[in-house]
């Protein structure tokens, strides 16, 4: 399908807040949808995908093409969380195993899922090493980036921490103020799964929803006069930004820069949806509908996809028949606050 960007002229937000410093940035965890075991017996008749900064919702209609029931594994791979003290990662509910607040309804009824989690040391020169049992024995949470993990590590004795450092599980960092931090180096891998029966010759409806992880900058990069060509090309490739969107972003940047009182501010958010991972069903998606919601009429939004139709003040729709995903979906939001 053809690529184009969806661009909106900017207006002033009534009120909002963005509680980070001007030099802060956060990294999104790219998630996607449900994944089937590879099968030629089940088709995805339709998929309605809604993406916004507040929510991701996917409505599937799976059809069993055979004359016998099919029981198979349905999974939701959660994005990896890597221990990295230098990077701020956006996690909706970091203290919970279900850190994206994932929910599923099958034929109108909520269903339960099994969860698998592993803490793994990822090394470029060696095979991955599972350290889940070792961390649990020490009472250390598996999510490497949460306060509870930091507290649990501080409770360990110095000898225990040095053993973990020697094993490559922690890294000792000495700061300019003389303080010492033992930073986690492991990666958390999580998956929700369930056995699901697809009845012979009929469709079932599955609705999945979760809170997305958002990337962001607390100021504008796109639209800045010093944005170099390689950076501009990155935005164009990833988000399909076009000249009209660029002019609107430049105007937004000038307005935010001219306001010395900081009463008017502009910042970036991004959302990544992995749609290429789950293509294990028979044939293409019969009817694919993507709706992108930008939340506020003032927000600028740009994304790749196809010919988009504006269906509301804050929503855009793309509809494709016999859809085969060729690339994942990345959305850029340029937002404003009025203090």
Polypeptide structure, described:
The chain is an alpha+beta fold and 339 residues long. Helix content is 15%, strand content 40%. It has five helices and 22 strands. It has helices spanning 132-137, 147-155, 158-166, 229-239, 243-258; strands at 25-26, 31-32, 35-36, 42-51, 56-64, 70-77, 81-82, 103-106, 109-110, 114-123, 126-130, 170-174, 180-184, 187-198, 203-210, 215-217, 264-274, 285-293, 300-303, 309-312, 315-323, 329-338. It is flat and about 60 Å long. 32% of the residues are buried. Residues 1-23 have low confidence and may be disordered.
Low-pLDDT sequence parts? 1-23
Report the radius of gyration as a whole number of Å. Answer: 22 Å
Biggest sheet: strands, sense, closure? 8 strands, mixed
Provide the residue-averaged pLDDT.
87
Derived from helix and strand composition plus strand pairing, the structural class reads: alpha+beta
How large is the share of residues in beta strands? 35-45%
Q: How many beta strands in the DSSP annotation?
A: 22
Overall geometric form: flat
The helix count comes to 5
Short description:
With 339 residues, the chain is an alpha+beta fold. The protein contains 5 helices and 22 strands.
List keywords for this structure.
339 residues, alpha+beta, eight-stranded mixed sheet, six-stranded mixed sheet, 5 helices, 40% strand, disordered N terminus
